[in-house]
Design brief:
Layout (H helix, E strand, L loop, with lengths): L2 H8 L1 E7 H10 L6 H9 L3 E9 L10 H6 L3 E4 L2 E4 L2 E5 L1 H15 L3 E7 L6 H9 L3 E6 L6 H4 L4 E4 H5 L17 H20 L7 E2 H10 L12 H10 L4 E5 L2 E5 L1 H9 L1 H11 L16 H16 L6 H10 L8 H13 L3 E9 L6 E9 L10 H11 L1
Parallel strand pairs: 1-2, 1-6, 2-3, 6-7, 7-8
Antiparallel strand pairs: 4-5, 9-11, 10-11, 12-13
Helix pairs in contact: 13-15, 15-16
């Protein structure tokens, strides 16, 4: 870490996200926001003490994001869009974002770094205003969506899809994180893996840990991933995953890290795990409610195709098993596990999934036992059109 990096790390920072600008830009590239990666990048430029995301959360594209952002420590700020003839004319998130920045400039003078996640040219006036008052301004945008006027006036510029969460091509040059030199760093790397495994194994309150929590705990143990040649904490964790030491899952916009045996237990004990998590949640928490019809068209079709494919490769389906595999295969990674559970419940209430039974041998008594299962309703109007293409894909794979 350079002296400049150290100074930035000690500075208090504020993070402001034009959520539509980020999410739509990444969607055009086939990606989506990952809050763990974003916060990891921002935290290396300052101590994040204010974090806000601006959007019209009633729009379908963003409807399920607020509880996940809030859980990650980012305040969702509602900014309604203007419509004309049923079409969105203007998103005024940049105006509200600028007003909040100026307000904090006057009320929170300890803030030294302002991180703006947007590529909107209208923010150039805000950037100049902040820099004229001695603040460092960092802009994070998506390739092809960042105004050139904005890039010429900032202190630091990051492209989300290049510098934070690369949208990699299979053979893209430089797509892999830097690895340590085997001869000199193997022992140190093994020691780092051992610390990581010990941390995950001895966490008493739950299975699975957020990337951000791991970073804090490893730092307290004196661990510095940069000393091993990794630019980001996530690069170190991915290397650990490639070496079979951990598994990484993305749920609710954040990354969760598991030991391999913890990861396997998700599948082997899905019923028990789901019941335990359901018991811990507030049944009246409406923020977790997700309906199939509320998904955008692409997400809805991906969900239904996955149900069809999962049924074909499974002996039987039960809701906890479906939720577990939706998580495992990152089918809808923007949704948390409780939101996925709600989605499956809604699929049952809408008769996309219908009740059935499946006979198994009871583990203890050895006698036949009927499980209450569900099957995909092939006659449902949302499912029927997808059957020919999924059958064709299965034939090609076979």
């Amino acid at each position: 870490m350079t002296a400049n990096d150290s100074e930035n790390h000690r500075s208090d920072a504020a993070l402001f996200i034009d959520w539509d600008n980020l999410k739509v830009g990444l969607k055009q590239l086939g990606g989506q926001p990952n809050i763990s990666s974003l916060l990891d990048a921002v935290s290396r430029r300052g101590r994040v003490v204010v974090a806000r995301a601006y959007a019209d959360w009633q729009q379908r594209l963003n409807a399920f994001d607020p509880p996940n952002l809030y859980a990650a420590g980012i305040e969702p700020v509602y900014v309604p869009v203007r419509t004309q003839g049923g079409k969105i004319v203007k998103n005024s998130a940049d105006v509200k974002l600028a007003v909040d920045c100026i307000d904090l400039l006057n009320t929170a003078p300890h803030l030294k770094v302002f991180v703006l996640v947007s590529g909107d040219a209208d923010l150039v006036h805000l950037v100049n205003f902040l820099r004229a008052r001695g603040k460092k301004v960092v802009v994070i945008g998506v390739s092809g969506t960042v105004s050139s006027a904005l890039t010429e006036n900032v202190d630091d510029l990051l492209m989300y899809d290049v510098d934070i969460e690369p949208i990699r091509q299979p053979e893209a040059a430089g797509s892999q994180p830097r690895k340590p030199k085997p001869a000199s760093d193997t022992a140190k790397l093994e020691e780092a893996y051992a610390q990581l495994e010990d941390l995950l194994r001895n966490r008493s309150n739950r299975v699975g840990s957020l990337l951000s929590w791991i970073g804090i705990q490893l730092a307290r143990r004196g661990f510095d991933y940069r000393a091993l040649g990794f630019e980001r904490l996530k690069d170190f964790l991915r290397e650990a995953e490639r070496n079979g030491r951990v598994r990484i899952l993305t749920r609710g916009l954040q990354d969760w890290v598991y030991l391999p045996e913890q990861y396997e237990s998700i599948i082997e004990n899905e019923v028990e795990a789901e019941e335990r998590e359901a018991a811990e949640e507030d049944s009246n928490d409406l923020s977790s409610e997700v309906a199939v019809a509320a998904l955008d068209e692409g997400e809805q079709q991906n969900f239904l195709r996955y149900l069809i494919e999962l049924e074909r490769r499974s002996d039987y389906l039960i809701p906890p098993y479906i939720v577990t595999h939706l998580v495992k295969d990152s089918v809808l990674p923007s949704l948390s596990q409780s939101q996925l559970r709600s989605l499956v419940r809604d699929a049952a209430s809408e008769s996309i999934l219908v009740p059935s039974t499946y006979t198994v041998t009871h583990r203890q008594t050895g006698k036949p036992h009927d499980l209450r299962t569900v099957i995909v309703n092939k006659d449902h109007p949302a499912v029927a059109p997808l059957l020919p293409e999924t059958e064709a894909a299965e034939a090609v794979a076979g």
